[in-house]
Amino acid sequence: MPDAPGRLPRSFTTPGSASFVEFLASHDPTLLPGGRALPAGEAPASPHGTTIVALQYSGGVVMAGDRRATAGSMIASRHIEKVHQADDYSVIGIAGTAGLALELVRLFQLELEHYEKIEGTLLSLDGKANRLATMVRGGLGLAMQGLAVVPLFGGFDLDRGAGRIFSFDVTGGRYEETDHHAVGSGSMFARGSLKKLWRPRLSEVDAVQVAVHALVDAADDDAATGGPDPLRRLWPTVAVVDADGYRAVGDAELGAAVERVDAVRRQEAGEQR
Predict the structure, then answer these.
(1) Choice among 9-18, 69-78, 235-244 with the minimum mean pLDDT
(2) pLDDT single digits (tens) 164-181
(3) Catalytic site residue 50?
(4) Cβ-count burial 34-45 (b if 16+ within 10 Å, e if not)
(5) Tell me, what CATH number does 66's domain have?
(6) Is residue 25 situated within a structural domain?
(7) How many Å apart are CA 49 and CA 59, to the nearest integer?
(8) Which of 13, 14, 30, 50 is catalytic?
C-alpha cells in the first residue's frame, strides 16, 4: 500500500535497527553513494586525497594528513581537510576520490550519532570499525569504476584503555594495525619513516612530531603529497584521541612540530656531508 499523502513515509515509523545506513537503504537506496547508478563511460578526472598516517602513543592515537588534493598532474587544492572527527572518541582519515570520501565521512558521522541517539550509548570501537567496513563495501561498484575511497580509522577504546588503528580495503576488508600505519599515494614512504621514527610509549608531543615527520618524508618522494607550507601557513591536519576524547592539534603546536622536524632533517643532512 502506498504511503498516505501528507504523512511521513512508512519507513520513518517502522521499527528497525539503530543503523542510519540501513534506514536509508530501506527508505531510498539512491541516497547512499553506492546506490546511485552511474552513466556509461569513464568517470571524469576528480580531485584525489593522498597521504594519511596514524600511530599509537602512550595515551592513545595520533592521526595526520597532508593538505594536498590532486587531479591528474595538477594540484586541485592545497587546503583539503583529510582528517575528521568521527565521534567523541574516534577519528577518520580519507584517501581516494575526494568528493566521495568526504560524503563517506559525513555519512559515517551520522551513523554513529544515530546509533547513540537510538541506543543511548556509544558504539564500541570494534562496532564502529565494522560499520565503516560495511559502508566501504557498499561503494565497491564505484571503486571498480575508478572512484575508490580508502579510509583509515582510529580511536580510543574505552574498554581496553588504549588507542587502536584500523585500515580497510575497497572490498570492505577490515584490518587492525599495530603501532602505526599509513594509506594513500605516499604511504610507502610514510611507512618507511614511521618504522624509523616510531618507538613504544611515545609522548603526545613526540607522536605529533613523528606523524608530521612521516608526512614530510612522504612529500619528498610523492608528488601528490603536500608538505608543510610555512609561507602560506599551511600545516598538516593532525588530531589526537585519548581518554579525554578527540582533539584537533592547533596551528601553534603544528608550527613548532614542523620547526623541530626541519631542525632534525638539517642535522641529518649536515652529518651526511
Answers:
(1) 9-18
(2) 999 999 898 999 999 999
(3) yes
(4) beeeeeeeeeee
(5) 3.60.20.10
(6) no
(7) 28
(8) 50
